[in-house]
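Many introductory courses stop at the sequence. We go one step further.
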Amino acid sequence: MYIGIDVGTSMVKAAAFDGTGRELAVAARPVGLALHGGVVEQDMEEVYAAVVAVLDEVTSGVPEAVELAGLTGQGDGVWLVDQEGRPVRAAASWMDGRAHELVDQWLADGTFETVFRRTGSAMFPGCPGPLLAWLDSREPKALDAAAAAVYCKDMVFQRLTGRSRAATDVSDASMPFLDPRTRAYDNRAVELLGLTHRRGLLAPVSDPLATAQTRGEGLPPGTRLANGPYDLPACALGAGVTAPGDGLLIVGTCLASLVATTDLDLTGEPAGLYISTDRPGHWLRAMPAMVGTAALDWVLSTTGVRHEEVDGLLAESPPGAHGVRVLPYFAPSGERAPFVEPRLRAELTGVSLESTRADLVRATCEGIGYAARHCLAAAGLTGSLAVCGGGTRSPAWMRLLADVLGRPLRVVEGEVGARGAVLAAAERYGVALDAEAWTRPTAVVEPDAGRAAYYAKGYEEHLARLAEARERARR
């Protein structure tokens, strides 16, 4: 039995697989987010307790011995821990917007672009650079008390194994301090953000992945565990996206577009990031838009629609949603891909007394699809496209997405991030697994030619509306 652990933003999951990649059991626990005034934080002890609980559940339900385990989780944010991996303060989430004024300042004075040209990372308010700089000016005692500023999965790895020193991997370290060419921290980037005196807080980068044996919480003592990569590259592994040009769209809380590449191009508009992988010279060009299913969740809760009604409502409203349009930029910290606009907000237009709930739902799904198309184009998609995440549970939305994107979708269902975490762990430990069998799609959704042509025009209109919205956001 192989165990994959995926510590998500709102849900912590553990999945057990057999040697062929078949899911044997899945356990999940929700975790909370504290939102107030643009600040978004998480209780690390609640997150860790959820990890232990799902591991206890999934291992007790399957009698086989655990061969090894792999760990992945949400990226970005700042998780300040002491020497034992215990929290110094609440974790600042990747969704946090408190540092937006710093990002605005760095955009204006050129720091933002300079850092991108060095690291391939376009900063946004919820990434470690701005958050650490904000905490350094507002909460310096918290940084003084910390042994390390890590990422979510790194905290969990240290606690599960009892290691005395924090560690991260090249994927998590990619935002925003890692030089993708040398796979080491760029001290000049640290200096540009005014954090040289906090350089010691950056967790050492383990390359290859850090490994250790567990100490007995959640997993049997002595279980082999590998730390990383974080959830976006783990999903790429779990979906079989490794060949240059192939892409992955994750329709989850975050709408993430990833394209595998061997071409490191730090020119063009600074946006998204290059995620270093466990293979030197191979990167994922990532355009992780801030809001995916969270945008639809907001519309559903506001209109009183249940998730199970979505497919039916999508059938009630035609393409174009009777003129209703949604720019789906709902995040309090604005947008980060395929452009950075901290003050951008969502817009709902074309609504009248004749508009229905079905129109609002369809317009939101179409808007998310247009945002995904924008991100995938910017990331350089030329090959096949896989799709995973919670949105895949809606067949009607998958058909709509295929039409909006104008290309077939390789749908990969199940716990894709956990699956990728296992594949990464197996590679690290030298355990041979059939990656093709583990990543086989569950379905292929083809676009309708007529609807795809309609949405191609709609996409151009979306880009025009977006350009106007960005201008308003800058005033």
